[in-house]
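for ur thesis appendix - DUF559 domain-containing protein. copy paste whatever u need, i formatted it the way the template wanted (i think)
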Amino acid sequence: MHSYTILPKHLRLWDGWQVVGPERLFLELAATMPRMDLIVAGDHMLRHGLTTRTRLNSFLNKDCYRRRGVRRAKSAMPHLDEKSDSPPETRLRMLIVDAGLPRPIANRDVVTERGVWLARPDLSYPALQIAIQYEGAHHQQDYKQYSYDIERDGRLIEHGWIVIRVNKDGLFGNPRTVLNRIRKAIADRSPA
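the 3d part is after this line
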């Protein structure tokens, strides 16, 4: 059994309760969670403003030398992205990165040369005009969302973009096919 002291500076008041702050929580999660789940949790913390990359780095480099989980936490840091909107987006991004492909950009607006907004793909390679969209179940179940997705993809395609749509079955059941589509799109768009 492990025991250690939690310093008062690592605590926050939340709804009347003393709880560990997000930086300490990230370290605790790093000691017990698989790498992918840790990155999902880190993205969520950053996206929702619970902490910043600077505060996490400072905590990991100053306040927790030789603590359990610190190596895993530090190794996860370069993979965190505050622009990731959902756990599946994070998992898809990491599937791509872990396969040795270039890291796609999360949730960047695509605008025409005239400044007209087209879309905000979940993941993209703007220089190659490749958009990767994760489509959760609500994208098929909600007619308005489904219609929006069709229009969004149409706008991108009309402006020369390749759109790769990924759902739960592809991400979790057949990731090799997803990666092959992305590899092919990158190869097709990369200079010879």
